[in-house]
Amino acid sequence: MELSIPKWMRMIEYLYEVDYTYPSLAARSTKIVYSHAVHLLQVLERKKLIKSRKKGRIRRIKLTAKGFMLAGHLLKVLSLSKTELKPRINAHRVFKEVKR
């Protein structure tokens, strides 16, 4: 059973790996639609997890110290889920058919 990683986690994970990046490059690298990525980046900036700097027409983003801490913890959890966490319940045992 593969866990799907939410979009905001993918964005944090990508920003953890690079120093500065552009919103369009971050959206393309994480396979998130650009308009959704921009909204996601605005939310992350309000939460003070990323910092953006605009110079002319170019906007660059990077993680803050708080964002780096969160990304480190997320990567630990994701690595645990890939190696140690396995489903313990078989679905066919839990959901039995009701006989009428």
Overall description:
The chain has helices spanning about 5-15, 25-30, 35-45, 65-85, 90-95; strands at about 50-55, 60-65. With about 100 residues, the protein is α+β, with helices and mostly antiparallel strands. It has a single domain (about 5-95), classed as Orthogonal Bundle (Arc Repressor Mutant, subunit A). A hairpin with a 2-residue loop joins strand 1 (about 50-55) and strand 2 (about 60-65). The longest helix has 19 residues, at about 65-85.
SSE arrangement, N to C? HHHEEHH
CATH structural class: Mainly Alpha
In DSSP terms, counting alpha (H) and pi (I) runs of 4 or more, how many helices?
A: 5
How helical, in percent, are the residues?
55-70%
CATH architecture: Orthogonal Bundle
Distance between the termini: 32 Å
